[in-house]
Each structure stands twice: as C-alpha cells, then as structure tokens.
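Long-time lurker. I teach an intro course on protein structure, and each term I like to show students one example going from raw sequence to a predicted 3D structure in token notation. This year I'd like something fresh instead of my usual example. Would anyone be willing to generate the tokens for the chain below so I can use it in lecture? Attribution to the forum is fine with me.
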Amino acid sequence: MDIFGLRDRLVQDYADYIQSFILIHDPQIRGYVEQELGNGLLWPEPLIHMNPSFEPGAWIDDLVQEGILHEECSRIFRIKDTPEDEGKPLRLHRHQSDAVRAAKTGKNYVLTTGTGSGKSLAYIVPIVDHVLRTGAGRGVRAIIVYPMNALCNSQYGELEKFLCYGYPQGASPVRFARYTGQESEEEKQEIIANAPDILLTNYVMLELILTRPLEENIVKAALGLRFLVLDELHTYRGRQGADVALLVRRVRDACDAEDLQCIGTSATLAGPGTFEEQREEIAAVATKLFGGTVEPGMVIGETLRRATPETDLSDPEYLKQLRNRISDPDRHPPMDFEGFIRDPLSIWIENTFGITSEKNSGRLIRTVPIGIRGADGAAARLSDLTGVPLHLCIHAIQEGLLAGYKCRDPHTGFTVFAFRLHQFISRGDNVYASLESPESRYITVYGQQFVPGDRSRILLPIVFCRECGQEYYSVRVRQEPDSNQKIFEPRDLSDRYHDEDTEAGFLYLNPKKPWPENIEEIIDRVPSDWIEEHGGAMRIKKNLRRYLPERIFIGTDGRGSDDGIPFNYVKAPFRFCLNCGVSYGARQVSDIGKLTALGTEGRSTATTILSLSAIRHLKKEETLPEKARKLLSFTDNRQDASLQAGHFNDFVEIGLLRSALYKATVMSIV
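-- Reply from a regular --
Happy to contribute to a lecture. Here you go:
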C-alpha cells in the first residue's frame, strides 16, 4: 500500500473541510491564511519512524529445553493467526530473552525499549510461566496496570492469541480478565466471584478495587500477589507519579505481597547521556515508583543490529554509487533480500531513518524521526549529499521505504524496513492582527502578545462572520480606575462573561464600509426588528440602543487614545454583523455559531472527518487483506446508517471507532 498517497489524500480531504467553513472577507488576511495552510500550518510534514532490526534472542522452545520456561509455554507462545491455528515457533528478541532471564531472579526490573520492540512479552512470558508452575486457578497472581484503557484493550487481544488460540473454547491454561470500568455488570460480577490468574486494569480502577467493598473479593484473591506490572512508566510523573507510587505501596500492603516482583516498561523514560547513565537514571526513578530497589543492571535496553552492511557514508566510492542509483528514475529497488540490503539507497535510508551509533560507546541506537520534505528533511540532506535534484530524492526515498516494507528477511520473516508515518494534524489557532489599518496591520497565525520586535503594537485574535467573512477583533475591555482609560485585551471567542471591571466585546474596522454616525444611515443598517415607529418617524428601540456600535479611538498598544485609529466597539454576545447585516435573536447567547476562527471546529467533528476519509480511501486499497476490507466496509455502512437516521451520538462514536480502526489498520500495514 502506498502510505504516502493515502496521507496526501487524507490531508487534502481535511484541507477541503477546513476551507469550507473559513470564509475571510479581507484579501490580505485571506491570502496569508491560504499561504500558511498551503505550507502545512495544520498538517506539517509527516515524520518517518522506522522500527529497526533487533538482535535475535532465544527461541521459546530452547528456553523450555533449558528448563527456564514451563513445557506448556512451547504451545502457548507461538505465532498464531486464527483460533484454530497451532502456530509457528516463536523466537524472542535479545532484550525479551534478557527480560525472561531477569524475571527468574525475582528482582524488580524495567524494560526500556522503543516502539514495536515487543515489550509486553517481557512480562507476559514470565507471568504465564509462573502460573503454569504454581497452578492456575489459585487467585490473582499478576496485576498489569495500563495508563489508558486503549492499551489495556490492545493487550487483552494479544493475550487471547497466545492463551486461547490453539485451545478448545474455555480450555485456556491460564485465565485472564480485563477490569477497567467498561465491563458489563455481569462481567464484573463474574470477575469478582471467580478471580482470574492475570488481571488487566488501569491505575484508577486499581485504586477503587482497594477501597470499595464491592471488590473486596478481588483483593482477597490477590493475597500473596507475585507480579505487579506498570506499563508505560514514563506517563507516571509529577503528582500522578506520586499517586501511583503510593498505590504500589498500598497494593503490596493490601495483598500481603512480601515477595512482590515489580516490572516496568517504557519507551521514553530515559534522558540524555550514555546508555549506562540512562540505566542509572531509570533505576532511580523506578525504585521510587516501586517502593523497592531496582538495580541499574536490571534495566534492560534494546540491542539493535543493522539490516544493511555497515558502510562509511562519506566514502567517495559509496557516494558515487548512491548518486548514480538515485539520479536514474528508471532504476528501482531490488526486490530480492540480498540485492535490496546492498542497494546504496537502502543503506542510506537505514542510516537516516533507522539506526545510528552512539558517539562515545559506538552502541547502535535509534535515529530521531525526521520528515522527507522540508528544508531540514531527509530529501534535502540526500540532495545536498549527492547533488541530485530534490524531486528525484523525494521519489527515491519514498520508493525505497515502500520496497523495504515488501521485502522480507528470509531468516526472521520480518520486513526489512518496517516504518511508520506520523502525521500530526492540528485544529489550528486563531488569526492575530495588530490594531492598525487593514493595509498596514501585522498578521500572524502564531499566538503571541506583541508584534515581533515591537512591544508597542499588541496582537489581538481575529474572528470572522460566518455569513460574509468580515473580520472582528475579539476583545475584553477594562477601564483603568484612575484615568478612565479603556484598555483592550485579547479574548477567546467562547469567553463571553461580563463583570464589574471588564466586558467582552468585538472591534470592527472596515474602511470600505465604515459604520455610519448619522442616525438615518444607522437605521438603514441595523436589523429591522431593532426599529420602531414613534410620532410618524422611525427610531431605534430604547432597550436596544445600548447595544449599538460605539466609536472608539485606539492606539496600537490597545489603549484608548485620541491619536489612535477609529474602531467600532460592540458588546458580546454578537447581535448582528456590521458589514452584511445578518442578525441573531436575543436567545442566541453563544457566539460560536455566528462567528468562526481558524480553530473553531470541534475535535470530535474533525476526528470524524479524518477517520471517515481514511476508511473510505482504505476501502479502495486492493493490497489490504480481505478481512480488513470487510471490516472497513462494515464500519462505513454503520456510519452511513447513523447519519441517515439522525443519530448524532452514534455518528461521533463510529467516528472515534474509525479513528482507532484507521490507526490499527495502517500501523499494522506500514
């Protein structure tokens, strides 16, 4: 599948959606916003993150033969695709093997490895082995704590493959259950009455289990608890970290777990420094969290290896080969394994997106993810290195990455380049402008207090009339008690409260259609329901006169000034547009439906738009497995049915399901 093409289509759909509700009247602001959107303001260049190759470790069967694992582990830990599949032998990575051996010591340990390194097996294998050796059905032997339910649900699915696939229904050798608060009442009662060997939960629910009488039986079943796992240790910091550290201590006490073995996993806990320095830092943090010693030697890191031959990238002969390789658009990556890994471009790609050497130790470590395009992107580096035009470099890199995913290592069965494309999409911020004439005002989409380099010119957020696109400054005005001078400050559109000292409102400035001062002209511009007949003449209703625009002169510093520019100020809520005249009833208090900003659209709606686009484009992708395409079609049909029936809540729910499905599908493919 061409993930780069999918990304471009997805971004284009989102761009069309954003531009469909952003109507901007002023040509300068409109041009600036269109330019920033075109430059990727809301969808910056995606980052490429490659899962490197790992040093192979022991086969599960070999660990069984050594007596390190129970013999049933040979049947459990296999590569299985379907419930009936008996599976293929499983070989661990070296860091997974090291973790299994570390678990046998009974000491606390931490596995700190990157994404896609199989961290969960580092604690699942030892836990299952322990249950098999001591006997299943004797209460909760392990509690695995996740920071988010999504991670818990994902791990539950992985446990199903190992512990249920290949066994008759209901005959799993080790029982496990998920208890996060999302379960039905029937499922909860079953867990309370018949506790599993392994309990998957989150730290909030674990706190409740310890304190609520309802779950007292779970605590009793966990007496003598052997394992407590904290997944994603790096999420527990600050106050939350202190709460979890105390929770670990309460679990040890409540479960009378004198021999409790604490295990942690993390991808990003370490700070700067060498690997040995990182191990010491991680051990110190984990010791505080666990309330028990974690030795630096029990911090296990990943051991990487190169898929391509080690090469001096500055060697003139290599550079010549690389230049010749990418300058010819008719040359394509070899599809056989040996040919692919020796391709000069493949070597450069792995060294750029995959692995590099630690300066002091020479240890192989992951590279920092980078984009392909952009001034600091990989294509620009390749172009500078070889002198080959940028567009050819972009094409070569994308083609090389896609080919690397299709090419498999015959020794391990893994793809040579398993990479991920990380596309960050923002809902956007406001447009900001200085208090100057439309021809000379400073415009930006980056929130800041002053015009760069000039603190005498403040910046205020701009909102736009949904009907005509006329811009308004969204302000809060306060009056200095000593001088009675009015000061205008930035205000979020949703902030509409008034108090004794300040007031929410808007500033209008349109030299081509200024607000009139003559009462006859004003009557022609206000909404018709603001006018009444009195003594044979038309006048503004008394109760509405206080809402008429007020002429105010304001300096560039946001203070009222006789030398300033004339604006018209109106109080919030927004009652009618001074440019096009569209009006709103007194009961329409919120201004969100009347005015819009660059980041006004809701997160739920944006998520639904993105996931809808992803699903419908993926449905057309013929390279996807049939099972995935059927699931995509089912989800899309449910979405359409919800929309047609007017079930908005279902619409949002299915949209979020799409988002999760999109992530799961794409990440498993590329």
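Some talking points for your students: The chain has four domains: 53-304, 310-422, 431-596, 603-670. Residues 257 and 460 are 59 Å apart (CA to CA).
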